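Re: the pair you flagged

First of the two:
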Amino acid sequence: MRIAIASDHAAYELKALLADWLRGEGHEVADLGTNGPESVDYPDYGYRLADAVANGSAERGIALCGSGIGIAISVNRNPACRCALVSEPLSAKLAREHNDANVVALGARLTGIDMAKACIAAFLATDFAGERHSRRVDKLSHPPVLENSR
């Protein structure tokens, strides 16, 4: 699978370990940075990752920052991306199965390497269930027009 991975400075070490592990598992990995401890802005890397998934150069994405929250928000600004912040494998599995998530976010300050690998393995091994979930996922890209409630 073609996987893009990106992080801010708080998660660059975890990113490097995960990228090496994914390559060892036979995946093609595009490391979109950052590659050092110098302070950077997580949205820059979230947007870069989202673009790689949206333009098809990556089938899946892995977004990392200190908490996972900020980079997940930035990835989700791209309407072609559905990024789920996860902290354990069941959430990662359900993000794929029910929500057709194409990006998973993790917090390097909150998640150890073994748990991160377990989450990513579940995310990559799970297919979208479709059926009743398709209608709901479609609404994520095409929200209904709501009447003004005033």
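Second of the two:
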Amino acid sequence: MSVDLPERTATISRLRVPGLEELPPKLQHQIESITQQLGYTPNWIRAIALGGAHTARFNEYLLPLLDPNQGLLPYADREILATVTSAENGCSYCRLNHAGSLGEALGDSKLGTRVAIDFKEVRELSPRHRTLAEFAAKLTNHPGEVSDADIETLRELGLDDEQIFEAVHVISVFAAANRFTIFLQVTPDDAFFG
């Protein structure tokens, strides 16, 4: 599949969008892989490609955290964490993106969208997903206030220390991704609305 990255696309980023040929081979491969998987090249990867090798390293960290076939936590748990983190950070791109992914993971697109708008208004969340959403919100907004009691609450859900730390990874890497997309003012993909 051909990947078209125009020299400058003011409609998707406030900074220059590099051409595919300018990028390191590892990043080119990541973009081609994502394009093949989704059937289109998402604006977020086109916009942050400006980081070159740094972006490739970031993607090596980010992408496996939300791979449905990897991870210590179930995929829906990781999507709850990513979606709530993005919503709490006010990242419209990531919120829209993960509303759809969460909806697929939960088997309910309306529920995914409602969580992305404000999880606190979603009565149907399972106790597990509510606890994970509350943890994501707290770590995002008030990291210094996360207490031993919060960790114990996660343990009561059945999470072991490695799973708790994976949750922290998801929340933290999405906080970083949110800052990239917010700063760049990445335009949401048309696919989010169709």
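Residues 20-65 form one domain.

-B.
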